[in-house]
Specification:
The chain contains 8 helices and no strands. It is an all-alpha fold and 136 residues long. The longest helix has 9 residues, at 28-36.
Length: 136
């Protein structure tokens, strides 16, 4: 269950950009080149996911840090309302959760099903993350 992705996610065939591919693959050199060449760090794929969503889901902390430093919006919601924080929390990536919070991620944003990042962490049995978020 931990590696399941929401239906329609980039990994399940949504039309993604080269920056999405670099973020999902944790290819920092390629991501840096794309951003230097003018690609927006908040570019969204066909389901509204940004590269930060993918990097956050898989806990690619160096990529997350790079995207945030380049101005990526940590509160950008995809079509079902999931933010990068939802992804990091549900996948158990505490270091990524902390980086997103430090970058201004709003932990009380609910997705279209009414779930906050903490609720998703609980649903995926990520107790430490739920406790961290609930203490904010």
């Amino acid at each position: 269950m931990d590696n399941e992705l929401p239906s329609g996610s980039a990994a399940q065939g949504a039309a993604e950009t080269p920056l999405h591919s670099a973020a999902w693959a944790n290819d920092l050199a390629h991501a840096e080149q794309l951003v230097r060449n003018g690609v927006s760090v908040d570019v969204q794929d066909s389901v509204g996911e940004s590269p930060l969503h993918g990097a956050s889901a898989w806990g690619h902390i160096e990529m997350v840090t790079f995207l945030i430093a380049q101005g990526a919006d940590p509160n950008l919601q995809e079509q079902t309302g999931l933010t990068p924080l939802h992804w990091a929390a549900s996948h158990g990536n505490l270091e990524t959760v902390k980086a997103l919070i430090a970058a201004g991620a709003a932990h009380k944003i609910a997705n279209s099903f009414g779930q906050t990042a903490s609720a998703l962490a609980l649903a995926h049995r990520k107790w430490e993350i739920a406790q961290f978020l609930d203490a904010l």
